Amino acid sequence: MRPLDLWSHEIRRAGPAALLAPPVLVVLIALLAAFGTRLGSREGNTAWFLMIALEAGIPLVSGIAAASLIGRDRAVEVQLTLPTGYRSTLLRRLAVTAGWSCLCALAASALLIVTGWWDLPPGAPHGPAGQLAWLSPALWLTALGLLAAAAFRGTTAAATVVASVWVFEQVFSSVFRESPVFRLLHLFATTRGTAPGEWLPNRLTLLSTALLLAAAAWLLLGDAERTLEGEAK
Amino acid sequence: MIATFRYEFRMQIRRPVLWIVYGLTFAVTVAGFGHTYLDLNLGGDEGREPRPAMIVSAILLTSLLPIVYGCLLADRLVRDRRLGMTDVLDTTPAGRTGRLAGKYLGVCAATAVPLVLAYLGRAAAYAVTEGEPAALGWAAVILVTTVVPALLFVGALALAGPLLMPPLLFRVLFVVYWFWGNIIPATMMPTLSHSILSANSQYVAYGLLGFGHYRELPPNVILPPGGIVYGPWPGAALNFLRPEASPAVALLWIGVMIALAAAVLLLARLHTARTES
Amino acid sequence: MRIEISRLTKTYKGGVRALDGLDLDVPTGMYGLLGSNGAGKTTLMRILAGLLRPTSGTVRVGGHDITAADGRLAVQRTLGYLPQSLGVYPDLTARQFLDYIALLKGLDSRPSRRRRIGELLETVALTPDADRRLKGFSGGMLRRVGIAQALLADPRLLVVDEPTTGLDPEERIRFRILLSRLAGDRTVLLSTHIVEDVAQTCRSLAVLDKGRLVFRGEVGELVSRAERRVWTLTTSGPAPSQGRIVAALPEGAGTRYRVITPTAPGPSAQPAEPTLEDGYLALMEPGR
């Protein structure tokens, strides 16, 4: 366990945008839960929005934050010569941004469970496994962001990949629902629906493929020369 | 301005990531849609005639690829400042406004090239396989009247946005904006989606190109006497932004896109004047 | 800490050969590495810092083989590295930046870390600016932050790449004195294309040209390469056509030229005492 001082530096490296976005989203969720009906939104609609803010909003923030990890580091050349491996440093930064997003998501889901909003959308998952509604897509997009950042060595391309996967799965969710293979990789199976009995397999497939993506990123990041080169030439 | 255009175009089009990311997204789209993408059939029989087929092809591409287009543009204006180029460029005879215009048109044109190639490539494939050379003409018309105005606006937004906020935050908000303001059904919540302000609206398709006549709907849908009406969504908020599609409204939409692009660029120009003077 | 380099070759993707069969022994103390831009100096520095993998050949630093992962880690524990262009986090103060790097170098104890950072800020004369954000620092101040971060873990090997580029004369002299003071029982490898830096700080040096070693030895030996080849000549006529003109100074109605050539460039030419720069230029003469 490294000193807390090092963690406090890594929190600072995450930057204000990555640290502020998740709590802002939680505040928006709380406001929508409190005032949505008064603003004229139907109860069913409000419940769906609250769930999509968790299932899609939190993963988008953590995915883009992961995609920005490498391209933003100005001191990468010195970092790569330090006895603390750069991969460990990146992992620590990822733990800060993704961990913070997850903490915020947990707080938001606790709020929704306590206020009863969680149970309103049809087919809403229950029990501890219900938390996979946001955890699985968040970890999957985070791993994808990290892999894209390691592969392209630039923020622009990596964030574009995360963004386009996110939009693709939203816009063409019917394509995912209908294909037995793609169905397992649908990030938004909670809010966009999936075949009966396929929700948990989908969440677990996302978690295991996230591990594969992260492992591929880990391998790519081990190559200092590649990381030093910067954005793909 | 022309020199800036030329160099910005070259710098952007030579970026391998431009081609890699578009390629990946396009490949996923084709793989995800399978035969639907090849037939250009979105549930009806739109794919049979060249005009609706090319409209459907444009709808498919412009739902997703503008996200790639916008995100790839998002670092181009702030990059000069990060690389310390602003001072050097300021000492050249080119004025800031001319440079901004050249940069905007150059990077937008370059970033649009893969998207346009994907679209025209699909049109060419259609023209050959279906024996319908008219598809190429319709593709060109749709490109100029529908795709280009949308890309002009989205390009201005993506270029100027990161001046006001960290690029990370901008990318998140850009995705949320695209989803909220262009994709979701208008009845879901108050949204700009499908309105005269939306880059993804189909006013030109319905108002100018008569797409409504080609749409075949299930027999249980009862159409009003005038056929399919594109515009107001029953029960949606902000319907005053969704006039009924007509040739005049289609032209208005084109004008609105160009005016919004100009307004965003003007704001960007004012912002750089304030922060760099 | 001795550096032993044998048949070191580095070829980049695309076929550019930056180092070509380099053999070099660097002893403890201050050692200069001279060469024009593109000679392969930065590539060599980056290989020594563990940033680049050699295409072939061996590099041992203090007995550790840096082509192996454990050897590289062992070297990185004793290494201080100042890259040619040091990137910093502009939102941090100098003290915070050094604290962060110190933690990554394994200086976990807060009191000893603070003490060390205080000493180094004093060494590089940045104590008054220690709590200012780095985004407001001049190029010279950033170089000094760079050298401070390189010295944090009291390294046995200090690799500094073009440290004086862009510094004003005062800063440059201060930097040279600092580097010389640091050498002592360390190995300090100073890579530069500024001959004067080496002349003022190193006893031994190597010269690289197009990825190959073209000289290694004492500074005096390189100077002697220009012996009896340096001339001064004052003329109001055309510049001497023979040899290589290394300086031209207006003098009265004419110009005083300093020329490197084996034979006198004119009847009024006078032999001159060679400098290290003359030696370097004589070495680099085409067809030497």
Automatic annotation (TrEMBL), chain A:
The chain crosses the membrane at residues 16-35, 47-70, 90-118, 138-168, 204-221. Keywords: Membrane, Transmembrane, Transmembrane helix. This is ABC-2 type transport system permease protein.
From TrEMBL, chain B:
The chain crosses the membrane at residues 16-34, 54-74, 104-129, 135-161, 168-188, 248-268. Keywords: Membrane, Transmembrane, Transmembrane helix. This is ABC-type transport system involved in multi-copper enzyme maturation, permease component.
From TrEMBL, chain C:
The keyword ATP-binding applies. The keyword tRNA processing does not apply. Keywords: ATP-binding, Nucleotide-binding, Transport. GO terms for molecular function: ATP binding; ATP hydrolysis activity. Residues 3-235 form the ABC transporter domain. CDD domains: ABC_drug_resistance_like. This is ABC-type multidrug transport system, ATPase component. It comes from Streptosporangium canum. The lineage of its organism: Bacteria, Bacillati, Actinomycetota, Actinomycetes, Streptosporangiales.
